[in-house]
Structure formats: C-alpha cells, structure tokens
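Input for the complex:
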Amino acid sequence: MIEEKADAEPTEEEFEEVLILDDKGLNLRIVLVEPESEGNVGSVCRAMKNFGFNDLWLVNPCKLGDFAKAMASHAQDILEEVITVGTLDEALQGCDLVVGTTGKPSESTRQHLRTPYFTPSEFRTMLEDKAGRVAILFGREDFGLSAEELARCDIVVSIPASDEYPILNISHAVAIVLYEISGLEGGDFRLASGEMLDLLYSHIESLLGEINHPEHKRDKTLLMLRRVIGRAMISQREYFTLMGVLRDIELTLARMEEGDTSWVENN
Amino acid sequence: MIEEKADAEPTEEEFEEVLILDDKGLNLRIVLVEPESEGNVGSVCRAMKNFGFNDLWLVNPCKLGDFAKAMASHAQDILEEVITVGTLDEALQGCDLVVGTTGKPSESTRQHLRTPYFTPSEFRTMLEDKAGRVAILFGREDFGLSAEELARCDIVVSIPASDEYPILNISHAVAIVLYEISGLEGGDFRLASGEMLDLLYSHIESLLGEINHPEHKRDKTLLMLRRVIGRAMISQREYFTLMGVLRDIELTLARMEEGDTSWVENN
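Predicted:
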C-alpha cells in the first residue's frame, strides 16, 4: 500500500524529465484571444515589429484579409507568420509564465480572482532577471478575457487609464505593453516551466483532498495558491524544493495511515 | 539716437503685458499636423479619452466621417469638440512650450536641428514641476513633421523603437506618449509664455546683427540658441532676467556707439 502511494509520487527521474536548462533570457509570445477586427490584428503586427517582437498567436480569430494587411503596413512578415489555433491551451503550450491583460477590472472580478494587478512598468521590473517563455494575453475587443481565462494566468497586467473610459483599443494596449518591455533581455533566473507548475498544482490539489480541506473551499484555495505561486514567478530550483516538501508530506501521511512510525527514528 | 534705440527696447510695461500669472499646473494640447486617415484621428480621440485628455487640434486635416466616429468609439465628445485650423501657427496660439514628436530621425536631421531627443519617460520627468500650456505635435502618417515644423519646437520627443521598423502608427505614438504623461498635474514652475520667447528670440536676432555675428552663421546660431533655451524650459522669472541682460547689452552698445562712456562711472 505504501509502495503504491510512493509510486504515484514523482520520482527524481520524473523531475529530471521536466527540467529545461537549454534556454537563457526571455522569449516573449503575444496571444490575441478571439480578436474580432482584422484591422486590429494588422495594427498589433505593426506595433510588435515597432518594438522588436515577432511571435504572434491567434486563438480562434476573425478572418484576416486586405484590411489586416493594410494596417500591418511594413510588418507583413509578422502577419504572414502568425500561428492560428483553436483553443487557448494550444497557444500556451510550452510557456512558463502566462500573463493576462485587462482594462480596469470591476471590484467583484478583483475579489473573485484574489489578485493584485500590475502596471506595465511593474511588469517590466518583474521580468528583468528572468529566463523562460512568457505568453502575454490580450482579450476580445468587446469584453476582454473571460474570468476563466484570467484564472488561467499567473499574473495580470492592467494599464492605468481614465475612470471615465478605461477600455483601450486592443492594438493600443499591445503597443503600450510592448513599449514598456521592449529591449528586455532577461537574466538567468530560470522560471519553472508551465509543465512543472501543472504538476505542482495537481499535487497540491490531491494533497488538499488527503488532508480533508473542506470540499467547498478547495477550488478557491487552489486558485489562491496558484495566484500566489504564479505571482512569485518561481524558479526551477524553487520548484524542486516545493515538490520535495510536498512529497515528504505525502509520504509521511501515507506511512502514518499505515501505522508506520519507523520514519520518526529514521529522520 | 540713444533715445530712439532705447525706445525700441521693451519697457517694463511691455514686460508686464506679456506676464501671465493666472494659471497653475499643466494644460496639455494635442496637435495633429495634416493627418491623412480619419480612422487614425478617431483612434487618437479614443486614446486621449483613455488617458484623460480632451484638447485636440487638427491642422489642415483629411475629411472626418463615419470611420473616424467608429474608431473614436466612446470618445465621440472629443471628436465633436476637435478644433480645426489651417496653419500650425494657429494651433500653437497661446502655448508656452511646443513639443515635437518624431520616429527615429536620420542622422542628418539630428545634426541639422542640433537637438537631443527625449524619451516619453524623460519628457514626463521634465514636465513634473511645470505650469503652463504645452502643445504636443504629431506629424503626417507618411513623413511626420517637416524639418521646418521640428525647428519650431522647443523640445523633441522620440519613442525608442526597433531599428528595423521604427515608424509607429500615429495613434499608437499618441497612446504611448499620453500613457507616459497621464495623471501629471505639474507644479508651480511657471513656464515663460510663447509670446515671451518670441520677444526674447527677436531681441537675440537683432543683437546678433549688432555685434556683427557672421551673417552666414546667424540662422544656425539663432536656431541653436532657440534649442538651448527651449530645452531649458525657462520660467517667467528667468525670462525677465535674460531680457534684462539683453537690454543692458543693447543699451551699452548704443551708448558706446555714440562715444558716451558716462555709464562706466554711473555703474
């Protein structure tokens, strides 16, 4: 029984499998979620090229035609190399940090997601020493990112704007965020990968069950923990330490369940 | 003869006339010079409202129709209250500081205008303690502001962008500059008025003649002095001191010309 539980834990080999050490510095991906205006998509291409970015992904976008080309102006290369996918998950494949953007959020949304919002300039500072692949999400023209999509984000960036009319045109929002972070080369603080974080969260979730955390609170607690860990932008090394602690808790719980207290002497 | 020259100098009363003491804090005006796309004008209106600005002037613009309205979105009030004029001079009436914007300038332009370019963030810092009316100029979609229009500016702001494609869409440029300076309230360092500066420059110009500054150098020297004084953003108080010095030089020159050296004893 103990062995079965132990087998369910990630082994050192599994840890090794998800370890990514090859890339240094920052790799930035722009993701537009269900853009509705081809003109905006073209304008986003132009702004990206203006600030030296080129990795654009579109989730379930509108049709792109001549107006997108006209607005892209001298950024036809970005428009031609855009990657179109059907779901957000596909666009986030291989990303270590997922960043949402939003206009001034309603207090209720703020509450629900339990998250502070960062300005583009704070976001720049946060990225300065990082290495890894970062996806920056921009939502639909009419209602931005859904609560579910925002919950999927590790951090959320919001552009400070007038209370009277805080909703920017999407290409303006992209231009301002890229203006702030352009020229960033990042550092050698290697972010834990998205794959690592998924594994970490699934262990936390199962742990919440094992310790009988009230069932009606589990989802909210898990979301809050995701927020905290996401915002902390943990490194690969920190990931291994956290996973080690989780594994120790799980092993101990399993042994105690079996009435095995030999581990007390062993440690 | 001395009296005639003295009469040509600004009197204390003339100084008083141009003194403006009524306004505190910053008053910001956006001026688009010959915009060619009504969509861009509408987008500029939206960006202005997003960041709390409302004073928009257009110099000799394209026709504004339904597309401008569509792009202005919830900033119809700004679009309706736009002021259209035929010349740049009209748009700058009553402004104390004229700020040009430009994409990455060619080295030759840089050389000719003898001016450093400021980033939007440096520009924000420069405005922090100022009081007065500031016009920010954005040029045509295809070639920006002319060399002559840039020469008319006290300072020039340039958005750092990719060497490969440094020319931003005009509404993106407006959005980024306004994002940087939004929320600025200014201080009590009252800028010398545009009228004062004109008077100062006309006195410098006539002085260059009186001291036989080489004629072929005069225009360039005057432009350089305009640049230096414009960039220094002088206050009203500093204006009076400079004018006082100029008047003393001119009076002394006039007296020496007449062979009158009594002033030496008088001082």
